[in-house]
Amino acid sequence: MIDTLLRREFPFASLKLLASARSAGTVIDVRGESIPVLEATPEAFEGVDIALFSAGGDVSLRLAPEAVKRGALVIDNTSAYRMAPEVPLVVPEVNAHEIFNHHGIIANPNCSTIQMMVALYPIYQVYGIRRIVVSTYQAASGAGQRAIEELKQTAAAILTGESPTASVLPVSKLEKHYPLAFNVLPQIDVFEANGYTKEEMKMVNETHKILADSRIQVTPTAVRVPVVYGHSEAVYVETEKPFVLEDVKNLLANSPGLILQDDPANQIYPQPLQAAGEFPVFVGRVRKDLFVENGLSLWVVADNILKGAALNAVQIAEIWVRQEGVL
Amino acid sequence: MIDTLLRREFPFASLKLLASARSAGTVIDVRGESIPVLEATPEAFEGVDIALFSAGGDVSLRLAPEAVKRGALVIDNTSAYRMAPEVPLVVPEVNAHEIFNHHGIIANPNCSTIQMMVALYPIYQVYGIRRIVVSTYQAASGAGQRAIEELKQTAAAILTGESPTASVLPVSKLEKHYPLAFNVLPQIDVFEANGYTKEEMKMVNETHKILADSRIQVTPTAVRVPVVYGHSEAVYVETEKPFVLEDVKNLLANSPGLILQDDPANQIYPQPLQAAGEFPVFVGRVRKDLFVENGLSLWVVADNILKGAALNAVQIAEIWVRQEGVL
């Protein structure tokens, strides 16, 4: 988050770093200035204009209202407020106007939803979208730093012929854990009663809310793969109106936040190892369905920590600041 | 292949091992007996009842007719004859009867098609299938031993902070190569003019041939993931007739070659690391679509080297031997 603020040259006058009592007291170097980490108490939000929350849903539920009470705009990276009717759920390339309808809190969508929305919104605007079938290839970093460490440890164990042990993935708070290295885990977050995971239901519900269109039929399968940074998605859509493939490619090549990497003859297509550390969403393998009228397949890759989290939040703050002249 | 023949206790009287001139001369230990590898010449097939081919399409095109001429039944693991009209394309759990329509050659389907067919055929029989949208998560072993080595080398390089180099994956004969470790590559085999890869077109064409039903709309995306053994597939189908979810699960639990691993509450679902070395196809995450009438999603995993190749070929030979009393 700090890194993204700096890379975007976000115009902050001062930066306050808040964390749990356990982490308070450490000092973080920001542009050569040593900034102490303070404990995130309600009072700590006094004088804060914009509060970027990213410390888990329970922390947001407890402290976001305190920050709002003290005059801050909260941009929340957790799922705590995403489906609250009065809270805008914003992907700037899609529904930036919603930023100005906030009541103190703006929610940042789930990483896998954000990149899909950036890729599909241009198509939605021009052709309409009736349905989406999406399979994800999600990176370990989406489950946090401990998941990254576990991926590396299990990979090293398998490479040296030891048997890998896991205690974090797929869901740290659940009972069973499986190694992700040289494996694929079809579970991200807990299961709901309908057989879908919470991650999958986020892709359904957040798509409906961001596009303000609950008619779209979304069929998700969310899968964790042994990648450190960068989520990939195989996305199939059916548009309402017919399309010419070249027109769709031109549209995607000229849409905000999106880079078209689609040249099969030269083996050019998005890859997570290449997208890691980058701000845009990358799209490729754009092709017409062989059988289904208005069927279209695409391959969408983005850095889940940047566009899927920190960057999207900072973009929201940028638009707010630019329009409101807050700072 | 040898290992599978032994594990299945295939009733062979003698085993002949053939390879290129380069590999000829090595000696392989089979059940304590030292068997020399001979050069695969046309004459080497004299006296052979069943010839299991797995040395690339060009070798099969050159030598399979020579083996047939000398009285052998050829079971071909390559793609050379799969779409030839007079050659049966067989998944024993689906169309074993085709084995007896051969004219000397029986083709073994592509690995990603085989496991999908084992999982979908019971559903196809009872409910009919109108369409399939499938995204694959395919292991490095599908691209051969050099691809496995490259996956391990690139993984080790990244873990030690070196930059990985690739010269095999995604397609060794093409110009560009990308590391697979901690990455995902949306290319398996070369691209065709329609934007689909050859691997994806195999899933379309072979599905039609095996089910003898070219009306099924197949939408594939084939992706290589950093796994050594075991292909996974996120499969969405639309059936012709309505279904009750529990009936589908019972059906899958009682179908040949298939093991239902579907207990989300206890985090039970198929994983490639668990399926590696096993003969069956594993299916889980079976769930009804949230919006689409007759929509069904499943997660299918199998060892691509066993059920996807050697086992399927040996099963074909077993059925032929059992019915014909050849040996």
Record keyword descriptors for this entry.
homodimer, 327 residues, Rossmann fold, 2 domains, six-stranded mixed β-sheet, three-stranded mixed β-sheet, 20% strand, globular, Asp_semialdehyde_DH_beta (chains A, B)
Description of the structure:
The structure is a homodimer of 327-residue chains. With 327 residues, chain A is an alpha/beta fold. Chain A has two domains: 2-108 and 309-323, NAD(P)-binding Rossmann-like Domain (Rossmann fold, 3-Layer(aba) Sandwich); 112-304, Dihydrodipicolinate Reductase, domain 2 (2-Layer Sandwich), CATH 3.30.360.10. Helix content of chain A is 31%, strand content 20%. Chain A has helices at residues 2-7, 57-69, 92-95, 111-127, 145-159, 198-211, 245-253, 272-275, 306-324, and strands spanning 17-19, 27-30, 33-39, 50-53, 73-76, 105-107, 129-137, 217-221, 231-239, 258-260, 281-288, 295-302. In chain A, the strands form three sheets. In chain A, strands 8-7-9-12-11-10 form a six-stranded mixed β-sheet. Chain A has a three-stranded mixed β-sheet with strand order 1-3-2, with no helix packed on it. In chain A, strand 11 and strand 12 form a beta hairpin. In chain A, helix 4 packs parallel to helix 6 (198-211) and helix 4 crosses helix 9. The longest helix of chain A has 19 residues, at 306-324. Chains A, B: GO terms for molecular function: aspartate-semialdehyde dehydrogenase activity; NAD binding; NADP binding; protein dimerization activity. Chains A, B: The active site is at residues 111, 231. Chains A, B: Homodimer. Chains A, B: Belongs to the aspartate-semialdehyde dehydrogenase family.
